[in-house]
Amino acid sequence: MKKSLQIGGAFVGLIVGAGFASGQEIMQFFTSFGFIGIIGALLATFAFSFLGMTLAQLGSQLQTTSHKGVIYYIGGRYLGLALDFLITFFLFGVAVVMFAGSGATFHQMFGIPTMVGSIIMVLLTIGTLLLNVKNIINIIAALTPYLMAIIFIILIYSLFTMDVSLSEADQLAKTQASASSNWLVSALLYVSYNLAAGAAMLIVMGGTVKDRKVAGLGGIFGGIMLGMLIILINVTMLVKIDVVAGVDMPTLALANQIHPFVGILMAIALLGMMYNTAVGMFYAFTVRFVAPDHQMFKPALVLVGTAGFLASFIGFTDLVGKVYASMGYLGFALIFVIVLAWLRKK
To answer: Where does the signal sequence lie (predicted)?
Structure first.
């Protein structure tokens, strides 16, 4: 049970990243549809749990240290090759987005130059990756309860201090920019591109466990916790839509409304989530090319980290637009082959 919870917590830590914890992604994919967005969040919870379970079990079954073995196993020679290439590319891309995002957050909250903020995150990421994979899972999982506690505090405060009626909140929410014109497509697209980012590391985490049931349970726990966070953040922003409408970082705005100190705690949570995602993505990217017990693994980490830092100069907003938009389409192909693999197994 403990190992399953660790895998589940690490799965959440990988997925939430910058946009999730800030509330911006939840706003566009769920809140902007009003109350029906809650149904979308429930659907996403089920999808994350089912797909997370399947991927973790495949990793455990094949005892893999890289996503490559599982992707070729479920996709075959040709589709597997295409998925492997795209997943590997996006692993690097998402990590670079985290470096750029941390630089922007350090600058916005603490007045630290963007470059310095990015360098801090790069050094923390490389330093963590010099540990073994089990320690990495523990570190990533440890930050998840902290984020959930902060979000829960903001939700309780928001429910007791809401200034608009539920019908007004529903109407105002629908005026916000949406990721899609349909709530169902939006929920599926959200699961799709997040899975494209988190699948590789989830497979690697499943490979650290020999018991398929333990690994699968970890995927289910992770999906449930992700769903709880989506629903909590969604409801919070819905009842406080008059405050967060048009704001770049909604949860940070709500935290600052409670007290500046809570705002600082939320900023730390955001940076922690970016750190989690950067660590998970860069580890999965590096082990795709160099085995973790190989003598060239550590030098490869430094090289990849340096390349990621240089790529982060493209800018946070531009990177999010280019990397995340493309990932949704990859995710649908990945979900298709995962479901096929599950059906074949049954």
So the answer is: none
Nearest Cα residue to 125 out of 239, 276, 257: 276
Rounded CA separation 316/57 (Å): 34
Please state the φ and ψ torsions of residue 64, each to the nearest 5 degrees: -95, 150
8 within 8 A of 221, measured Cβ to Cβ? yes
CA quadruple 154, 156, 160, 166: dihedral positive or negative?
positive
What's the CA gap between 103 and 93, in Å, rounded? 16
What is the H or E stretch that residue 134 is in? helix 133-160
Tell me how far apart the alpha carbons of residues 125 and 308 are, in angstroms, rounded to a whole number: 11
pLDDT value for 177 = 79
**Other residues' Cβ atoms within 10 Å of the Cβ of residue 293:** 8
Query: Which residue from 138, 7, 97 is spatially nearest to 60, judged by alpha carbons?
Result: 7
- One-letter identity of residue 99: F
Domains (range + CATH), the chain: 2-340 (1.20.1740.10)
Please tell me which residue, 275 or 14, carries the higher pLDDT value: 275
User: What is the tens place of the pLDDT at every residue in 9-54?
Assistant: 878 877 776 567 677 788 888 998 999 999 999 999 999 999 989 8
